[in-house]
Amino acid sequence: MGFLALAGLAAEFGIVMLVYLDQAVACNRPATRAQLRAAVIEGAVLRVRPKAITVAVILGDLLPNMLLGGTGSELMRRIAAPMVGGIITAPLVSMLLIPVLYVLWAGAPPCAQQRVIVVAGCSLLSRKLLRRN
C-alpha cells in the first residue's frame, strides 16, 4: 500500500517538474546549450521551496505514525516505512536527475528550427524571473 502511494507521489513530482522546465524553456527560448542549461536551472529552482514544504508536511505526518504505538500502528508502520524512505529520495531524483535528463534530451536546436511552446503561465514565470534579476 505504501509503495502505491509513493509511486503516485513520485510521478506527480516528476510531472510538475517537467511542466516548470517546459515553462522556463518556453519563456527564455534558448538558442545555445548554455542558455538551455540556464533556463532549466531557473525552472528547477522555482520548485525547491514548494517541494521542500510538501516533503516536510508529509514527513511530519508519517514519522509519528511510524514511530509511535497505538491502535492500528502495525498497519501504519507497513505503510509509513516505504513512504519515509521514498519521500526523501523522490524529491532528490526529481530535483537533480530530471533536469539533467531534460538538458540531455532536449539539446539546443538552432533558432530557426526551434519549436514554439505556448504556455499559459509564461507571463507569471517571466515576472518571477525578472524580479530576481
Main features:
133 residues
Structure description:
There is one protein chain. This protein is mainly alpha-helical and 133 residues long. The chain has one domain. It contains 5 helices and no strands. It has helices at 2-28, 33-45, 48-67, 73-106, 122-132. Helix 1 packs across helix 5 (122-132), helix 2 (33-45) runs antiparallel to helix 4 and helix 3 runs antiparallel to helix 4 (73-106). The longest helix is centred in the C-terminal third of the chain and has 34 residues, at 73-106. The model is unreliable at 110-121 and 123-127 (pLDDT under 50).
Which structural class should the secondary elements be placed in? mainly alpha
Total of helices: 5
The global form is elongated
* Counted beta strands: 0
Give the helix level as a range of percent: over 70%
Regarding quaternary structure, what we see is: single chain
Number of domains: 1
The biggest sheet amounts to: none
List the uncertain runs. Answer: 110-121, 123-127
Radius of gyration equals: 18 Å
Helix-strand string: HHHHH
Tell me what portion of residues adopts beta-strand conformation.
Answer: under 5%
What's the mean pLDDT score?
77
* End-to-end separation: 45 Å
